[in-house]
Amino acid sequence: MSVTAEGRPAKGAPLPFRIKVPRTRAVSLGLYVVRRVLWMVPVVFFVILITFVLMHLAPGSPWDRGGGRQLAPAVVANLNAKYGLDKPGWQQFLLYLWNAAHFDFGLSYQYEGKSVSYLILNGWPYTFTLGALAFLIVVPVGIGLGIVAALRQNTRVDYLTMGFATFGASFPNFVVGMLMIIVFGVVLYNVTGGNVYLPVTGFGLDDHLILPVVTLALLPTAYIARLTRASTLDTLRQEFVRTAWAKGLTERLVVIRHILRNSLIPVVTALGPTFAFLVTGSVIVETVFAIPGVGRAFVTAVESRDYPMILGTTILFSIVIAVANLVVDLLYVFIDPRVRLS
Amino acid sequence: MASAVAAAQMAEWDSPEQIGLWSDAWMRFRRNRLAVVGLVIVILLLIDAFTAPLLVHLGVIIDPIKQDVAHIEVGPGGFGHLLGTDELGRDTLSRLMYGARISLTIGILVQGIIFVIGGTIGLTAGYVGGRVDNLLMRFTDIWYAFPDLIFVLVLVSVFGPSLLSIFGAIGIVNWVNLARLVRGQVLSIKEKEYVEAARATGTPPLRIVLRHLVPNALGPIIVTLTFGIPQAIFLEATLSFIGVGIQPPTPTWGQMVNDGYQAVYANPSSVVFPALAIGLTMLAFTFIGDGLRDALDPRMRR
Amino acid sequence: MACATRSIPGCGAEPLVTSGRPELSDALLQVKGLHTQFPTSRGLVRAVDGVDLEVRSGEVLGVVGESGCGKTMTALSILRLLPDPGRITAGQILFRGRDVTAMSPEQVRDFRGNEVAMIFQDPMTSLNPVTKVGSQIEEAMTAHSKFSQQIAKERVLELLTRVRVPSAERRAQDYPHQFSGGMRQRAMIAMGLSNEPALLIADEPTTALDVTVQAQIIDLLKRLNTEMGAAIMLITHNMALVASLCDRVVVMYAGRVVEEGPVEQIFSSPQHPYTWSLLRSVPRVDQARRERLVSIEGLPPDLSRLPGGCKFHPRCPFVEARCREEEPPLAEVASAQKARCWVLMRTLGDNPQDRIEPSAARATLLSAGEADGAVG
Lengths: 342, 302, 376
Fold this sequence. Notes:
- The complex is a heterotrimer of chains A (342), B (302) and C (376).
- Chain A has helices at 25-57, 73-82, 89-101, 116-151, 156-170, 173-191, 210-236, 239-246, 251-288, 294-303, 307-335.
- By secondary structure, chain A is mainly α.
- Chain A is flat and about 85 Å long.
- Chain C folds into two domains: 24-253, P-loop containing nucleotide triphosphate hydrolases (Rossmann fold, 3-Layer(aba) Sandwich); 272-284 and 293-375, no CATH class.
């Protein structure tokens, strides 16, 4: 028979159209992956489009030099012609897309002669280092705290970890950053007569990293911890946990194979937004701690209306987040066998 | 006799357990100590926000714009300034009190924009369904791809840092979650039998929406909007901190943190106070949100 | 074989032999004076309040009662699976002579799923949704190092076939949501029997299933009981199940046993008013159409606030003064049948020799009740 009791095509049964490929889960997965990857294209396209349109709505032109030192109109006309800024909007857009595909995002307005790509590439290692380190903290610490809090529900451990998590999730990163600077930079310095303190500005592959990474990781860690705890508590209430105990499994097996295997599924889904947190968080953290990464470049671009830079970095951020979400979605489909891939 | 029974049933039907839901929720909320603390804090802030100009007028507190040039960057308690002054001699305490006005106004009122945009899109998508739903959800997905802070900064850089543009920016960026929630609620309620029954008896769609969909979906919507307040406050504070928020001389907490940052070694308290203000306000709303969520959770009703 | 604690002198019930199974007289599991309690904010909930029961090798024992009467908690106590804050506060649970309540955690772990197995009510939620069914059955075996992984895999297929799951090899690679309700329960049964336990506790195994599937599961259990010789403790509130499957029955109310005995006897002449009301409340096909269904008046008791005396007295149609003050012991009222009721004992006579036939005793009670205008 070609239809199971639940009305789905039985495995091995031919599909109603010509291609006789058995509709196994592997095939469905493959198709889903392809579909999702293809979906990224229109998303990125629209991001670029919307941002581009916004940039062009902005008042002023790229040739405005502050302080009354305006360029002569003839010079402006020349420059416009050179950079194609006299062409109609849609043409400029297509031109931009074309260039973007070649990783040319135009020239920055702030730093004469420097291309946006160059500036981004310069800042990227710093941002990536911070982000990667923060991620490496968020995942184990967040999940670990959440699990411990759930397994020891209503004890002091639970209240402590969840209290920490609530605070961490409620104070904006620049506030946390500031407070950390004050406590570990100023106060510690004053108290120990200048001997012990943590560096508060600049970048270095040493203890310069401590404050920024912790500040960046704090909010996502708190969020993941709360989520993990809630999910684990939910799972603990499920009947199959009792079945696992009744089978005589060791505590280790029950916790890992039955409880965690289920409770971590929603947590994986949350890693996408976590990534977004880290990206947007880097903007602030880099500003507070004066780290020359892409985030800070974005902020200075906003402050000085450097539109190509704003456009370029926005696109970069959006793509990074879209890719992260894609990976997370695919991961989720792999780990939860109940998900239907129609 | 049959019609009297039917009439009684319809009356019951029309207002299904709503009174019970709200008073029951309030009782449960009250039992959550953190939520109550949060509520108290918020009420105090609201009182502060409304009365601050009056207090200045009455001379109870110092004008936040006035610069006491003789006493720059004074620590707390010095020279009649309860919490000190900033680098221009402005009184910290009154600036804090005025800052609350901006934060609360933006934080709370922006939820209105979010509710309108997100609610309409979610409702339409859920109720109409089909291709419209598909289209709207695709649109939502695209919108979701914009990281919120980034996009807000972009919008503000384009339209300038006015109250209106900040309002608009935060609202426009953050409606997606609400839209998805509303759509989900609509979809699940649409399937319920009492809605089918209402439609079968020819009740006009708008009535169905108001009488059945809205009361049931209201709980999670309120919770989401409440949680949206600290998010909005966060965005506003970040904008001010970077310098593209509400411009001086209107004091905002984010500005105060930024200003204090310059002088953090000499006078750390000028950073600490606004930082704590932001954090505590966000915390208070988060506690309220948690409390509301637990109080309105239908699963926990006895 | 021990009698109940406060028994009437002279109690010496002989074991009843209902079939040709030779080990039927061996007591496999003996629960003696079990007390299980839950301290809650509302007060101390006495979920199991002095239960004595016994399961004999190879028999099928039914444990019946309303929801909340303590039958599930008794079963969970046997496997030491009580949820927090439940505790076994008194009593012994002797399995083949060893006291389960005194076992160390590691011993308990070894004991569970191995010598005594338990299956639960809703197979959809009782199986791990993200692991394959085959591996869940397999891990039940490898957890006790009785079978190597290789052999365990083979046994999985054997077990699935034995519980009549078609295409066992393919099914073992499926996930629970791909099984139908009946098949899931079969898989659970396979899992329970995988280590060839001497006793299988089945907690409402058919309640969550369709009626037609229920019959299949009951047949399966019956067959497995005969084939494998495993004793089954069937917990249910469905008297029909008990009638078709069980050898003996234990009736529980308010955390204690109020009647026990062989199935035929209990069904043909139930002694305790509660048992009798239970049986009467089941509608029967051959009942006259105009007869009203009889239900037991009142509500099940709050286990944190039990009444004094006999726990059933607030709802009992035959209640007398003594019932309100003193709790009756579980006493023998017929050969191999025990019940916990003063009125019954009074009508039967304190001395075994003076006893009149239970059915006659009940008739007396009934006629007296009808005369008083009690339940008719």
